[in-house]
Task: structure prediction
Amino acid sequence: MAGKNPWGGGASGSGDDGTPGNDGSSGGDGEGGGERGSGPRNPWLPGSGEPGKRRSASIEDIFKNRGPEGPRRAGGGGGTGGPGFRLPERPDGKSWVPVILGGVALVWVGVTSFHFVQPGEQAVVTWLGGKYYGTLDSGTNITAPWPIHMVEKENVTQVRLEEVPGTKTEKLILTGDQNLVDLSYLIRWNISDLTLYKYQLNDPRNALLEIGEAAMRAAVARQDLDSVLTGAGRAEIEQDVRTAMQARLDAYRSGISVQGIEINKVDPPSRVEEAFKDVSSAQQDADANLNRARAVAQQLLARAQGDASEFNDIYEEYKLAPEVTRRRLYYETMEAILSKTDKTIVESGNVTPYLPLPEIKRRAQQQQQGQ
Result:
């Protein structure tokens, strides 16, 4: 015995005459569902709802431009299906769609095929975004449209700056005399070969920073603490770092040119900064005292050289006239000695041989001051 059809109708799914319906539903009596089987109804078939209620359009109806009650009108009438939409036709009766698509394709080719590379820039062209195709120089260039050719521009003359180790970060480097300094520096670089820069290294910027740090540590390790802190060895360090970095980048074929290295700050580590300040102050005092001692030594040396020169001149005169020179020296010596002492000149005859004139003069001055 055949089972019941779950979508309504008889057990065999046939119409009243035993033949299946055209739409796959069970047959009916033509009266909107009429006498149906007792099984559940198919909710997707026409007329399966309650009698008298309007059903919504199915997917087939939407694509066939007809509503649930029949085809929609092409005009703008106010039927139940709403107005239809059709693109306007060309005078020859053909559709405008190919013309529109052709225009869009032409504009797309024009926009993505012409490339204006500014002065100082270069561009890398890749095939479907992967394989390298070529390099474009400054000016107007033509390539295949996107995405066949993809173009990436880059400024190759711009000098870029990399600050190491960045703001508010401490980088301790060991000097040649086993001391630590907190050092920060600036790397100035630009792109020398765009193709190598794009495809030779996985991360060119990171490689630049790593090479710069290695070169800086090696250069500082060849200097002592005083030369690094006072700036005496900074110029030599900067030149050594630049030379070492460029040699290593060229060996890697990185396409990078190092324009210069500039040391921004050299300080002692923060944990021993106070001790470094005390040492620096003591060193400054020692340098000041040393400079003063050197100045006094230079003065004494100049005086001794002057005395020696004067003695040599007198000796030359003495050799020419010994007696005259001897008497002249005696007079000059006595003049220098007597000019600084109290003296009394007494002539022979009826004059008292000793007269304390200086003492009398002093007593008279004291009496006048006491009054």
The longest strand covers residues 180-191.
